[in-house]
């Protein structure tokens, strides 16, 4: 199956997905990476792996709609079965989300539905959480909502700062995202009527 990854920055989750998909037994391959900014470091990482990496510079478009239409055009050319958001820092319109409904997934650095939005590590610490985590979910029209595919939790340690916590969580993200992608690609999890259904395995 064909997978396209959308990024905005460093692309470490994208890199984890690339690494996982290099295993011939993985049920999909990354056929392209798209960034909304030409300086996203992840673009070079993808190119080093001989993956088509395309910048659709948001600054070159008059408004959000025009930029998104251009992203949709590039995506259509890559013909993905699944689209993975990996640190893609732009809200997607209902048109986009519906076009790829059930085939569009995102990783978020919190145990959703706790802490949607930004600064999740700071907020988890401020709330006195003793665990923190990450979530891969199907993308629906509302930000950081949508049926949960898989989650991983880590312990909050004494003396943790947002930096130490996010560093440990990132390692968990890099394990979780390939796992969750595999579940979607092989049909173990699918979105039906706005819910993520887990297939029972014999
Ligand atoms: C990750 O923490 C991810 O959960 C969030 O944005 C960050 C992206 O990091 N959505 P990277 O670009 O994958 O390194």
Automatic annotation (TrEMBL):
Site for Raises pKa of active site His, residues: 144
GO CC list: cytosol
EC numbers for this chain: 2.1.2.2
SUPFAM superfamilies in the cross-refs: Formyltransferase
Molecular-function GO term, any one: phosphoribosylglycinamide formyltransferase activity
Stored InterPro entries: Formyl_transf_N, Formyl_transf_N_sf, GART, GART_AS
Domain Formyl transferase N-terminal: 1-181
Residues at which N(1)-(5-phospho-beta-D-ribosyl)glycinamide binds: 11-13
Metabolic or biological pathway, per its Swiss-Prot or TrEMBL entry: Purine metabolism; IMP biosynthesis via de novo pathway; N(2)-formyl-N(1)-(5-phospho-D-ribosyl)glycinamide from N(1)-(5-phospho-D-ribosyl)glycinamide (10-formyl THF route): step 1/1
Active site: residue positions: 108 (proton donor)
Keywords: Purine biosynthesis, Transferase
Residues involved in (6R)-10-formyltetrahydrofolate binding: 64, 89-92, 106
GO BP terms, alphabetized: 'de novo' IMP biosynthetic process
Reaction equations catalysed: N(1)-(5-phospho-beta-D-ribosyl)glycinamide + (6R)-10-formyltetrahydrofolate = N(2)-formyl-N(1)-(5-phospho-beta-D-ribosyl)glycinamide + (6S)-5,6,7,8-tetrahydrofolate + H(+)
PANTHER family the UniProt entry points to: PHOSPHORIBOSYLGLYCINAMIDE FORMYLTRANSFERASE (PTHR43369:SF2)
Family: Belongs to the GART family.
HAMAP family: PurN
Function: Catalyzes the transfer of a formyl group from 10-formyltetrahydrofolate to 5-phospho-ribosyl-glycinamide (GAR), producing 5-phospho-ribosyl-N-formylglycinamide (FGAR) and tetrahydrofolate.
Protein name, UniProt field: Phosphoribosylglycinamide formyltransferase
Organism: Aurantimonas aggregata
């Amino acid at each position: 199956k064909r997978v396209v990854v959308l990024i905005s920055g460093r692309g470490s989750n994208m890199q984890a997905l690339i690494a996982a998909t290099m295993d011939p037994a993985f049920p999909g391959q990354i056929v392209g990476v798209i960034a909304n900014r030409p300086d996203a470091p992840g673009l070079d990482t993808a190119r080093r792996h001989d993956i088509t990496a395309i910048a659709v510079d948001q600054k070159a478009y008059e408004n959000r709609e025009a930029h998104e239409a251009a992203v949709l055009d590039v995506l259509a050319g890559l013909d993905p079965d699944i689209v993975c958001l990996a640190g893609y820092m732009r809200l997607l319109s209902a048109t986009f989300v519906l076009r790829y409904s059930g085939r569009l997934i995102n990783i978020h650095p919190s145990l959703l539905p706790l802490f949607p939005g930004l600064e999740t590590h700071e907020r988890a610490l401020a709330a006195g959480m003793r665990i923190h985590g990450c979530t891969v979910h199907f993308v629906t029209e509302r930000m950081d909502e949508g049926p949960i595919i898989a989650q991983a939790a880590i312990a909050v340690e004494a003396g943790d700062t947002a930096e130490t916590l996010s560093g440990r969580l990132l390692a968990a993200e890099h394990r979780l995202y390939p796992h969750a992608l595999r579940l979607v690609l092989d049909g173990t999890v699918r979105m039906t009527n706005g819910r993520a259904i887990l297939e029972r395995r014999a």
